[in-house]
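Sequence, please.
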């Protein structure tokens, strides 16, 4: 009897150990998703005790709204530009910094430092740097004979300015992860390529890039999801303006949920964001996971 009870406890113990983590995950991640889906079919102002069922009207209103379509376009441009620029610059920096020496260690630390600074502080700093009257960036470009730019106050440059901030903050972490991936590649492979007199570009395309594909795969998916969730820089630097040129999905959801108190409408936008990220992630895994080479 004792041995039977001990055997049952031995089997149930792993589940008991993971139950607290699963409970936290369910309460703070799974439940909000289902509750958001539930709210998306209601008209609710966040204050009234009653919710009016409207079916799919929130979704049809969203899809027919020119402002929402502009938000989707802004989010797409921001995500694609941020991911491509961050990964490209980080990979180039990693190839340069993947060597020993005090100088290279110092540069690695300097590049990584923006990653550990709060995004709120960075947004305030860049708001000052991009100020059209006394900002440092306009003073620098004036030294080269260029006129002052309205970095954050003109529709043609505002989204580009936010992309610049995101790339500046993101390259440090990605660079160090790329360096870790490069250092895990066996040196014997490069020695064999040198014996075959392989050119540097050919070595990079045929050896380095395939061996680095798991790292690239991970950083690309994380960068894409992070770019879709951008909020702090927009809330502090532009508030979605000018004329909706920097408004993205997450800030749009915040606006309608917590400023206009259209909870059902905001929840419908959140469901659309969830679907978009889910579909893109699925496509990404289906198309690119087969090209990842695991050693």
């Amino acid at each position: 009897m004792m041995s039977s009870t001990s055997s049952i406890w031995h089997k149930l113990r792993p589940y008991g150990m993971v139950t607290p983590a699963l409970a936290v995950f369910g309460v703070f991640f799974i439940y909000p998703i289902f509750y958001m889906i539930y709210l998306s079919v209601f008209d609710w102002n966040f204050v009234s005790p009653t919710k009016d069922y409207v079916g799919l009207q929130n979704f049809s209103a969203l899809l027919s709204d020119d402002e929402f379509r502009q938000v989707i376009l802004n989010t797409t441009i921001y995500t694609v530009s941020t991911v491509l620029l961050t990964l490209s610059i980080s990979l180039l920096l990693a190839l340069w910094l993947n060597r020993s020496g005090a100088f290279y260690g110092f540069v690695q630390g300097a590049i990584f430092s923006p990653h550990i600074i709060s995004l709120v502080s960075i947004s305030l700093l860049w708001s000052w740097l991009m100020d059209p009257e006394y900002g440092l960036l306009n003073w620098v470009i004036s030294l080269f004979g260029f006129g002052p730019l309205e970095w954050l106050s003109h529709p043609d440059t505002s989204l580009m300015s936010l992309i610049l901030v995101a790339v500046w903050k993101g390259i440090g972490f990605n660079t160090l992860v790329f360096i870790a991936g490069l250092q895990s590649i066996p040196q014997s492979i490069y020695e064999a390529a040198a014996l075959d007199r392989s050119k540097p570009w050919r070595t990079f395309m045929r050896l380095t890039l395939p061996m680095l594909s798991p790292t690239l795969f991970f950083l690309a998916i994380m960068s894409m999801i992070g770019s879709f969730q951008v909020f702090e820089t927009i809330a502090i630097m532009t508030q979605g303006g000018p004329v909706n040129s920097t408004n993205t999905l997450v800030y749009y959801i915040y606006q309608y949920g917590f400023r206009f108190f259209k909870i059902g409408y905001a929840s419908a936008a959140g469901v659309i964001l969830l679907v978009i990220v889910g579909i893109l992630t699925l496509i990404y895994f289906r198309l690119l996971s087969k090209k990842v080479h695991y050693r």
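The CA atoms of residues 95 and 179 lie 7 Å apart.
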